[in-house]
Amino acid sequence: MERIVRKNSNRYTEVDIARGIGIFFVVLGHSIKQTGVSAEWIRILTYVIYSFHMPLFFCLSGFVSAKILSMKRPERVSYVLGRARRLLVPYFVIGILYIPVKLRMSALAVKPFAVTDIWKLLIGQNPDVSLWFLYILFLIELICAVLVNAYNFRSIWYGSFFLSVAIYWLNFDIRVPKYLFFFLMGIWVRLKFEDSRKAGYEDVMDGQDLLAFLALVTDIAAIIFLYRTTITVTMMLTSLCGIYLVLWSSSRMVYNIDGEKRKPGAFTGKLLLLGLFSMDIYILHEPIMTIIRLILWNRLGWNYILCTAIIFLCALCLPIPISKWIIRKVKPLRILFFGERK
Questions:
Q1: Are 219 and 242 in contact (CB under 8 A)?
Q2: pTM for the model
Q3: pLDDT tens-digit readout, 167-187
Q4: What is the pLDDT of residues 8-25, one digit of tens each?
Q5: Which long-range contacts (CB under 8 A, 24 or more apart) does 204-212 make?
Q6: How far apart are CA 237 and CA 301, in angstroms?
Q7: Which of 6, 200, 234, 324 fits 226 for a cystine, CB–CB 3.0-4.6 Å?
Q8: Angle at CA 230, nearest 5°, toward 225 and 232?
Q9: CA angle, 192 then 196 then 198, to 5°
């Protein structure tokens, strides 16, 4: 199929949509685990979500960090300081604010928290358990800022692949080497997108429908195999397939079969909104989940499905108006909760 030639643009709408898909599954995965209820369909759904969703976020984080390759040393120092503010400030601020809540409600919490655990904030174990991503992402970006450049990028990326496979194979919970490969893969994907734009083509995934179908079949087979055998190295394959399928699906929502940009529909627009607020949702969703779960599940004893649905919808949607109309309107709050000065 002949691709439509276009002028370069700086925004990748399909990546914003991919972030929206990613945060949707992150919140869904956390929602269904809130009550501790275990059932066959819950375990299957959990396997599907956790087979790819965090590697996807590290990949998308790498996508927006490709400038690391061309940075000079002073720029790298500024970059690391900026990322520390963006990631570690909310990590510590929200973690500290969350401690009294966690201690007060520890008896009802899925993962109890004790006063003696406070120091673990320094090693990535936050009372708001979902915020580990911010800590690990900063460490990965620090490593890349120190070690990775345009000349050694591929060598380090290839080496990180074997390291990640080893971590998955041994089932070690060592997150930096596990996810470094996916972050670097995101940089590689960005380079491919930029090469396509330079050549005048916007729809990078054009003509890949058959490949996407094969990836889907492979992903389903790998998830079934993982579920039945619990051989964790299989997650490497499910992660790669899942990332590819999300990027392909996002592109299909943006471009039609002729490579022309579609007019965003209601569904695409909602995913795009989720993508634009994905970090805000990630940072704020856990406290919202905890409060609603304690009220509806622990206090009122509502039905699991209804309770989980409400937890999911509130945790996915409420952070947007809270961020937009409260936190981002007040500079000190914007700095403390999101690490942003502007």
A1: yes
A2: 0.92
A3: 999 999 899 999 999 999 999
A4: 456 789 999 999 999 999
A5: 204/251, 205/14, 205/247, 205/248, 205/251, 205/252, 205/255, 206/1, 206/3, 206/251, 206/255, 206/259, 207/1, 207/3, 208/248, 211/248, 212/244, 212/245, 212/248, 212/249
A6: 39
A7: 234
A8: 95
A9: 115
